[in-house]
Amino acid sequence: MARIVLCAGSSHTPLLTLPVEQWTHRASVDYANPRLNLSDGRLLTYDELKAEFGEPHTSGVSTEALRLKADVCQRALDRLADELQAAAPDVVVIVGDDQEELFSTVNQPAIAVFYGDEVITYGKYGADSPDWMQTMGRGYMMDEAHTLPGAPELALHVIKGLLEHHIDVAAAARVEAHRKTGFGHAYGFIVRRLFKGRPIPVLPVLLNTYYPPNVPSAARCYEIGEALRRAIEASPLDLRVAIIASGGLSHFVVDEALDRRVLAGFAPGQSDILRSLPREALNSGSSEILNWILAAGAVDATPLSWSEYVPLYRTPAGTGIGAAFAVWQNVDETGAAR
Fold first, then answer.
1. 278: exposed, middle or buried (Cβ count in 10 Å: 0-12, 13-18, 19+)
2. C-alpha–C-alpha distance, residues 78 and 217, integer Å
3. Phi, psi of 126 (to 5 degrees)
4. What domains can you pick out in the chain, each with its CATH number?
5. What DSSP string describes 172-206?
6. pLDDT tens, 142-191?
7. Is residue 337 within 8 Å of residue 52, measured between CB atoms?
8. CA dist., res. 199 & res. 118, Å (int)
9. Nearest to 254 by CA among 284, 225, 291
10. Which of 15, 18, 43, 27 is nearest to 318 (CA)?
């Protein structure tokens, strides 16, 4: 029987792939973004955000302040990589969202499982891109089309198991025209940053968090996670499986209250917090919280053994991302994973 030996979550913001000196590129995007999302569902320009909330984070966006936060994030990623190595999984299920990298409005499934032999990344940020985008592209494995090993046998068991538990899941088996499409940053970042160069087979779960009208609710994502666990554990394959949620938490306007509410919902017995998150709080980048909710549903009786939260403000009015890193894992009285 396959068994889940580790569940984790990691933000995948471009800030984690760039030196602090280049974070200004992301800040400039915020200044120009006419749809900065608040957790009440409103979309504002930067000037509107500033008019309503002022610029309380001026001192927190200096290069030195950001460097200190970047160091915390990189240490957290190092710990996640070490935890994954110690768990020694045979397969890593990555729960991510596709942002017009593999899918498009031609076909945008609410949830899909990839069961191909090869997971090919989208080489979007090649040599013709600006230098900072090339740096980001390398961090996302999107500088060229990288080929990663898939986990087709387990993926087929997962697809069958999800269907048996009333999850109508889409299935994909290959990447066509991989110079123009492929797996994106939600998947490449996890492999590049956490796998330590090991060729661990990847089982991608693609959740539509960004694009209405078929974005699943928070409650539904938790149910899908519960069904994912049952499907994995019903597989006759003798495999150690890790699940990693990629993305989140709040962005493009940091909402620390929302982020801390989500983290509180990961405690055993607190799933109602996650299930009840309103749709208006989960728009745009903040929608990636749904990836974490799905993962939490797969380990709903398992406590967080470790977490780190860093609000990364990059403009004085508070745009940026609530960066989070976490591990769910049962430990015995000696502190060893079991």
1. exposed
2. 32
3. -85, -160
4. 3-328 (3.40.830.10)
5. E---SSTTT--B-HHHHHHHHHHSTT----EEEEE
6. 999 999 999 999 999 999 999 999 999 999 999 987 678 999 999 999 99
7. no
8. 12
9. 284
10. 27
